[in-house]
Amino acid sequence: MKKVCVMIDAGHLRVAAKNLNISYDNDFIEEFAHSCVLSDQEDLQRIFYYDCPMYNGDLTLPVSRKVRNYPGNDGQLRNLAARDYFAVRLGVLKFRGWRPKAELADHLPRDDDDFRPDFEQKGVDMRIGLDIAALAANRSVDRIIMVTADTDFVPALKHVRRMGLQVVAVTFPPPVSDLSLELRAHVDLSRQWRIE
Questions:
Q1: Helix or strand (DSSP H, E) at 75
Q2: For residue 161, which of 10, 114, 170, 183 sits 20 to 30 Å off, Cα-Cα?
Q3: Half-sphere exposure of 24 (CA within 13 A, CB side)
């Protein structure tokens, strides 16, 4: 039996679930993570889940200039962290400005509802990379099962493979985009997740 951990980039999994019309909640996340493991060949050690809590703070709306409060809530993430095998690693959301929801015609009046806040995750990729390196250094698992499409992890994946660990990439059925060739070149195995 290979000792394995599952590493989930929440942003990637959230988009995949949306594209597959799957409700994204903690029960789905837990079932998904366990379904990535081949129970007759692999012994699950841990599930790492990387995400950011909802934005918490006041933002000035782009047209009316009124202040709107965004009351962050990390209850879902705390609940997930309390589940068996889960280790939740949190980055932060940074507000980057306002984006139009759709192409806006120049002649139409605009209001606040025409815009959405633009947030950027910070610190998530670094946490994934550090955990990958720590797993390689400690040799606490034989295989890392990755749920991501982010090529920023290629250097960490190269390192892990040089240290003798195997990397498995989880892919999704269409219409979710496939792994890039760059990422596929740095994993040992890929396995497609199947909706049950």
A1: helix 75-81
A2: 10
A3: 13
d(Cα 31, Cα 147) in Å, to the nearest integer? 14
Q: What confidence tens digit (pLDDT) does each residue in 100-119 have?
A: 887 766 656 678 888 888 98
* Cut 0.85: pTM above it: yes
DSSP state letter for 114: G
Q: Is the CATH number of domain 2-55+69-94+123-192 3.40.30.10?
A: no
Residue-wise DSSP of 119-181: EEEESHHHHHHHHHHHHHHHT--SEEEEE---GGGHHHHHHHHHTT-EEEEEE--TTSPPPPH
Task: Give CA 14 to chain center in angstroms.
Answer: 7
Cβ within 8 Å of residue 142, ≥6 positions away: 2, 3, 4, 165, 166
pLDDT digits over 82-104, tens only?
999 999 999 888 899 998 887 76
The helix (run of H) or strand (run of E) holding residue 192 is strand 189-192
How far is 191 from 170, CA to CA, in rounded Å?
Answer: 5
Domain boundary assignment for the chain = 2-55+69-94+123-192
